[in-house]
Amino acid sequence: MKLTLIGNGIMAQSLAKGLVKNYEVEVIGRDISKLKKMQEKIPQIEIKVIDDQEDITNKNIIFCVKPYALQSVSVRLTGTANTLYSILAGTKLETLKKQIHAKFYIRTMPNIAASMSMSMTTITGDKEAKIAALEIFDAIGKTVWVNTEAQLDIATAVAGSGPALLAIIAEAISDGAVKAGLERHITNELVHGLFAGTSALLAKTHPAIIKDSVMSPGGTTAAGVAMLEEGKVRDAMIKAIEASHAKATELSKK
C-alpha cells in the first residue's frame, strides 16, 4: 500500500521514518527545502510540492498539517481519496468531511515516538476503515481504538502531549543529579535506563505497586516522594492533562 503524507513538519517526518519500513511513502508539502531535508534523512520517501489542484483520487492520505492550516491546504485538494487519516488535534470528523472528499474518514493521535516505531496512537472514525487504520499505525508502535471523538480528545492529552510532560520530568531528574554532583552524561544515561525499565514494569504492574515496592520505611525513596507531594507534582500533572484536553476541546469548536 502507498501512503501519501500531506505536510512536511516534525510529525510528518516522525511518521515517515516509521512507515517506510512497511509502506511506500510519498510526502507532499509546500516547502521544497524542508521536503529535500526530509528526503536526505529518509531517502526511501518520494517528495512533491503540492499543486494548486492536487488530485488525491483513490489515495490513502495521512493529513499532517497544523489545525489552523486545514482550510488553506484543503482548498488545493481535488478528487476523492480512498481514506483520509487525520492527525489534526481537536479537528472533528464532521469538519474534515466538509473540507476534504474521501470514502472513509479516520482521526488518529500518534506521537513523535513514531520515528522509533514506538508511538502510542489512538484511533477512531469510520468502522469500515478500522482494520486498515490499525494495521497502518501498528507499524509505528501500539494502537488503541476508541469509540468516540470525545475519548480521542482525552487521549490526545495523554499520548499526544505526554512525551513533552515526561521529557520535563526526565530533564528535571537529570538536573537534580547534576546539582548533587554527578556528571551530565552519566545522569542522562541513568535517566534513559530508568525510563526504559520503568516502562517495562508499567506494562505489567500498577504504578502504585511499583512505587510501594521501592518505598521502604524512612528510606531514600520515601524522602523523595514526600518532596514531590510537597511540590504538588500529582496535582500539577492532573491539571496538565486537564489543560491539554481543554485545548483539544477548544480547537474542536473552531
Could you explain the architecture of this structure?
The chain is of the alpha/beta class and about 250 residues long. It folds into two domains: about 1-145, Rossmann fold (3-Layer(aba) Sandwich), CATH 3.40.50.720; about 160-250, ProC C-terminal domain-like (ProC C-terminal domain-like fold, Orthogonal Bundle). About 50% of the residues lie in helices and about 20% in strands. The protein has helices at about 10-20, 30-40, 70-75, 95-100, 130-140, 150-160, 160-180, 185-200, 205-215, 220-230, 235-250, and strands spanning about 1-5, 25-30, 45-50, 55, 60-65, 75-80, 80-85, 100-110, 120-125, 140-145. The chain has an eight-stranded mixed beta sheet, sandwiched between helices. The chain has a two-stranded parallel sheet with strand order 4-6.
Query: What is the CA-atom radius of gyration, in angstroms?
Result: 21 Å
Annotated CATH homologous superfamily of the largest domain: NAD(P)-binding Rossmann-like Domain
The tally of strands reads 10
Q: Helix/strand-derived class?
A: alpha/beta
| Distance from first to last alpha carbon | 34 Å
Q: Which consecutive residue ranges, at least 5 long each, have pLDDT under 50?
A: none
The SSE order reads EHEHEEEHEEHEEHEHHHHHH
Average pLDDT: 94
Helix content: 40-55%
* Alpha plus pi helix count: 11
